[in-house]
Amino acid sequence: MPIEKSVDHIVVGQGLAGSCLALQLIKRKKKIIVFDIPENNKASAVAAGLFNPITGKRLTRSWKADILFRYLFEFYKEAEVLLRSNFFHPMPIYRPFISVEEQNEWMSLSATDGIKEFIEKVFTQSHFNKVHDPHGGIMTTQSGFLNVNSFMAAVHAFLENTDSISTKVFDLARLNFSDEMVGYENIRASSIIFCEGLGVSKNPFFSWLPIRALKGETLTISLEEKPEVIFNRGVYLVPTQSDNLYTVGATYQPNDLKEDVSGGAKTELEEKLKALVKSSYKIHHQNWGMRPTTPDRRPVLGSHPIHKNILIFNGLGTKGVSLAPYFSQGLCEWIEHKSEIQSEVNIQRFKALYSNLSQ
Fold this sequence. Notes:
Elements: E1 5-6, E2 9-12, H1 16-27, E3 32-35, H2 42-45, E4 50-51, E5 54-55, E6 60-61, H3 65-83, E7 88-90, E8 93-96, H4 100-109, E9 119-123, E10 137-140, E11 144-146, H5 148-161, E12 165-166, E13 175-177, E14 182-184, E15 187-189, E16 191-194, E17 212-223, E18 230-233, E19 235-239, E20 245-249, H6 263-276, E21 281-293, E22 300-303, E23 310-314, H7 320-337, H8 351-358
Parallel strand pairs: 1-15, 2-3, 2-16, 3-12, 8-18, 16-23
Antiparallel strand pairs: 4-11, 5-6, 7-11, 8-10, 9-10, 13-14, 14-15, 17-20, 17-21, 18-19, 19-20, 22-23
């Protein structure tokens, strides 16, 4: 018989959520085992990794930006040191104005508390000859991109070196549990945490949660001229780990769940790219991914309504790079110290769905 292995926590999934959670647990000196099949990370693997405190069509401050962005800088910089890798790239984002009215609005907004901390400068005239910006634009700070693939690969390598990861398929039928422990094959732990993204739909413990797929497509392109910053208007233009290659994205296709790229998305991205940049480009790849989202666009974390040592961390949606560090910390604080999980992200907000299911 195999020797029994005792750990503090089993983590299922090593996408962005599972990677950040694993690092948080390791920081707390917890012994873990992570189960992951890399090709299952369809959301994280195609992510551009953009983090931007000023978002949306109305250019508003991102939810909890004052807390999330301060923390993510600390988290990813510490991770680079621990993992001896380079994947975190702070960089200004330039967003051209589309009208004089928008320019005037931002001249006023840029001086208001809660916004001014994230604005490096407002330009009232064209500033970059590489983009269409006749009315100028805003330059944000505390922004940039995470090379998500490099980050996850570095976490994976670290877990391998510490004998803390398995690439075998996790078979839920082999999971057993009581109020005091969970067991899987020869492994014993105090809890199991599912970070499966859209795999949650096949997990009987959490399939009742309203986590749905939001498809997104991107283009990988090369440009004649190298941008000095990230450009963002209609689409974002973000550097990749390959020299002179950039990610253009992303589409939002809630009604298209076909696991493939589409001609419509390519056309949409190209039209928006041409409206943003002046220089010619070459398309190298078109990619797709499915993001796990919730109706209120907030993550889900906490324990199963009945089985308190079966936990979940999911629903990061389109802003996983900025959400995952802070809320993985929050989940760890709850596990260790029973600190209250914020109501906006607590699984309890969906408890009625489970109650209705069990009636």
